[in-house]
Structure formats: C-alpha cells, structure tokens
Amino acid sequence: MSLLVVGSVAFDAIETPFGKTDKIVGGAASYISIASAYLAGKSNLVAVVGNDFLPTDIATMQKHGVNTEGLQIKQDEKSFFWSGKYRNDMNSRDTLITELNVLGTFDPIIPESYQDCEYLMLGNLAPAVQLTVINRLRKRPKLIVMDTMNFWMDVAWDDLMKTLAAVDVLSINDEEARQLTKEYSLKRAAQKIHAMGPKYVIIKKGEHGALLFGEGKIFSAPALPLEEVFDPTGAGDTFAGGFIGYMASKNSTSFEDMKTAIIYGSTLASFCVEQFGWERLLDLKKDEIQARIQQFNDLTSFSA
Amino acid sequence: MSLLVVGSVAFDAIETPFGKTDKIVGGAASYISIASAYLAGKSNLVAVVGNDFLPTDIATMQKHGVNTEGLQIKQDEKSFFWSGKYRNDMNSRDTLITELNVLGTFDPIIPESYQDCEYLMLGNLAPAVQLTVINRLRKRPKLIVMDTMNFWMDVAWDDLMKTLAAVDVLSINDEEARQLTKEYSLKRAAQKIHAMGPKYVIIKKGEHGALLFGEGKIFSAPALPLEEVFDPTGAGDTFAGGFIGYMASKNSTSFEDMKTAIIYGSTLASFCVEQFGWERLLDLKKDEIQARIQQFNDLTSFSA
Hints:
304 residues; homodimer; UDP-N-acetylmuramoyl-L-alanine:D-glutamate ligase; alpha/beta; 10 helices; nine-stranded mixed sheet; 38% helix
C-alpha cells in the first residue's frame, strides 16, 4: 500500500499556561505524515514551505519515514505561520497571527512516484485544493479521508460540498459537525454528513474521545484521561495520521479496522499533547504505543 | 441484600423545546428508587412529601418495587416543587421556580425494617441530612454512594466535607467535580476527591458518558448517541439508581462490577430521556434493557 498525505507544513508559535515557544514546526501535514508513518512504515508528503523552512526539519521528517519528494520549497517566500494562545482550560484558544504566505497559492503537485496512492489523507486545506489532489490521482485511492474546519464552511461552502462528495471519510470536530449540519445531535449530524457524500464520519470530541459512524453502526472511543495537557496543538491531526496510518498498515477499508484505527489515532494523539508541537512524536517507541493501546483496552472493557 | 434510597420526591414542571408539562412527579429519589428496583428487584425509600402528593403516584412506586414505608407524608404541607426550562441545546437549563416546602425541615427517619441496609444511595440533599442517614444506620452498609450538586459547595462546604469522608462512592458531574476540586483535569479532580474520602469517584459527563476512578484504575463509559433527547430531567438520578441497583443485585463492591453497573446506569438513563419525567421508566421491559446493554457492547468493543 502507498499512503499520501496532503496538507500544511508550517511554523507555529504557541503559548499555553505552561510555557511559550518561538517558531516551531507546525501544520496539519507535519503531524499527519509523521504519525501515519509510525504505523504504516512510511508516508508520502505533498505540501509547500518557504525558504525559511529548515533543512534539519525536513531531515527530521525523512528520518521518521516521511518521503518529502512532494514537499515544494518556494524560494524568496515564507512558510505559512500561525500563532495562538491557549486559555487556562486548554479547550479554547485565540489565534494571534495567521500569515498565509506560500499556502495562499499552493498548487498540490503530485510526484509521479506517488501515483500508486491507495490511502489518501487530505489534511485541513482549502477544499478546492483538496479536490485538485483527488482529480490529479489517475487511479482513485481505496480510501480517501478528509479533515476540514469551520472556516471553509464560512468562506468556501460550494467547494466544500464538492470535495465532501468525493471522499470516503470525513474527520471533523463536534462543533464543526454541528455547524456543517445545523443539527445538535451528533447522530443526526452524522446522518446529514453521510448524505453529503462520506460513507464514514469521525467526530472528534477532544477530551471526550471520538465517534465513528458508518454502515448503520456507531463506535465510541474514549480519550485517555490525562492529568495534564501540555499543548493540544496538532492532536487532531495526529489522530487523523494514526487513523489513516493504521488503515494503510492493514491494507483495509473495513469498519472493524476503522474502530481499531481510531484507538491508534487516539493513542498517538495522547502522546502528542504531552509536549510542545510534534516534539513528543519524534521519540516514540513501539512498546510505548502498545502499552497505551492496552490502557485503552483496560479503560473501555467491561463484562455484561 | 437490602437497598436503601434517600432523597427528594417532588413535583416538577418542565419545559423543553418539545413540549411542556404541568406538575409531574420528580425528585432524585423518585428516579433512583424506581431505576434501582428494576435491577435489584426492590428498593426501600426514605423521603418526604406534602399532602398534595397523589396516592396514585405512591401506588406507582410500589408497583415498581419501591417500599414506601419510609415515605413521610406531611399533612397541611406542600411537596418540594421545581420548575425549569431547557434551552435549545438541551444541555443547559434555567430554573424558574424552587419551592423547598417539606424538604426544608426534612428529618430522614429510618424505619426499623430498613436497618438491614447493605447498599445505600444518598440522592442529592443537604449533606447534613445525608450524614444523618448514615449515622442512623446501626450497621454500616457495604456500599454507600452519594450524589451532590454545586449548590452545597456554595452554602454547606463543611457539612459536605464531613459527609464525603463517610461515603465510598461519589457520583458527580464534570462541572461539579471541577468546582469541588479547583482542578480542570478530571483525573486530577478524582485524585483530590479520593483524598476527601470516597475511594471511588464517578464523573458524569452527560452526552459524553461517564468516568469511574478507583483502586488506581479508570473506566470510561460512553453515552449512547441519541437522535433526540426529549427531556434530560432525572437522567443523572436514573443513572445512579441503575448503578446502585446493579451492585445490590450482584451483592458486590468490586471495581469490575462497578464498571458493568455504570453501563446499566447509562442504559437506564438513555431510556429516561426519551419521555417527560419518569414516564419512560414505568413501562420498561427486561428485554429492552438487555438489548440496549448489547448496544453499549457494540458501541465500545474493538480488537487491538
């Protein structure tokens, strides 16, 4: 199987109640590509950065199984930059700065060597760009997963509807699911999203876990109760990376495997929030991951 | 085993986006006693009402396995009355009227025939009254579960601490757990509550399910994703009733059985919200309950 990840690679500057960073690596595809490569062995990246992006950071991606052949480096331009500050409850944040830079004109060029893509993860991006990626793949992948956010519902509704109609799985948070469907009940929201295209809907609920809807079935995964969330940035993308990475590793599109994939995604996300940015993802051990998968088993198992 | 339920029996007038009731039976102990009797076969009730309470409602309790020997009926006084209106998201409500009436001077008299109590559920009441019940039982029950609310944290902190120190399990919602401990992390909140007395802590999260902490272990139960919540009144009390009722039916105080008890509590609560007040609880069938327990199994099971 071949796994393709498309999305932003960026700089973030983050402030939480625990501390503050200068510019560090951020962006949906940074998290997704590394997290998915942990499970699938490798991932192919399509993204764009400016010439301010450090070769050492690209080397870090490569070292973790990310093929960066599709990472465009724009000379004389700057990378996408986001700066945000989390409030004390860590559940809400204020955006301080958004500089689109190279992302404003991103043309997702698919290297020829990526054309065997069977598993496609479209990280949060303009829906039109996401659709371009699908259209540029000569063979439709077995599984297309897409993430999005409320911003695109406000400014690119028609594009969003077209892209939704072309994907298999939508990964979205609860607030966004409600905005997208005007339904408060997440069960009803999922039904409406099915009607927009995606046969499977993942609703991320942060500290409350995630729900998977599809084939008339529902799966509910908890989040691991944590004493401390150090930095939530990238948790949702790491979750998505774990999800697609597990599906690719199993070469599967079944609902049963999606359930386990959600547990793997939740596990990787639970590591992600322990340190700033993607730091914690860079030194993960296989047995650490397995031990936490076991924690999820213990957390949810009961006899009745 | 003998199961004792103490708490309010009251009238409620409820308004939701789906409709409006006149005075109907409400109160924590009404829900708890009926829900627990479904699982334990019977429950002993200690509560107080005025002479406006209808004999037919008492008969309804009795028909569902509730022993009302300990239900005091105060002549020339009125029952506790609460009126509230739910907002459109059904997750928040405004209290319109609270008339304490008989509850203001409630003296919880324990009938002699209740002294064999092994399982005690203290529904939400003034903590001093809850403690009086414990002190009036000559033999300490095997398991004492207590519910409370933020109101008592504001007006009766010292009493609350004394009562907490005397119980085994605290059942509380997430917002209340945070207020009680000044901790945002529910895992840390549970640790602080353990230090106040209860070896086991159940944190109810409404549509996000519930967490059980104890013996260094954690169990996470989902709520059943519902298309519609018709009336959430009594869901938390029905949950508590299912919990204590299951433990009593198993004559157990083990963590493993508490996990299953939480699933039974969640199951009964999922029925409760389908109609106004306790209506849906009055015609529950054993096989309906079992079918929904199976839904919880399907909802949470995965292989990893």
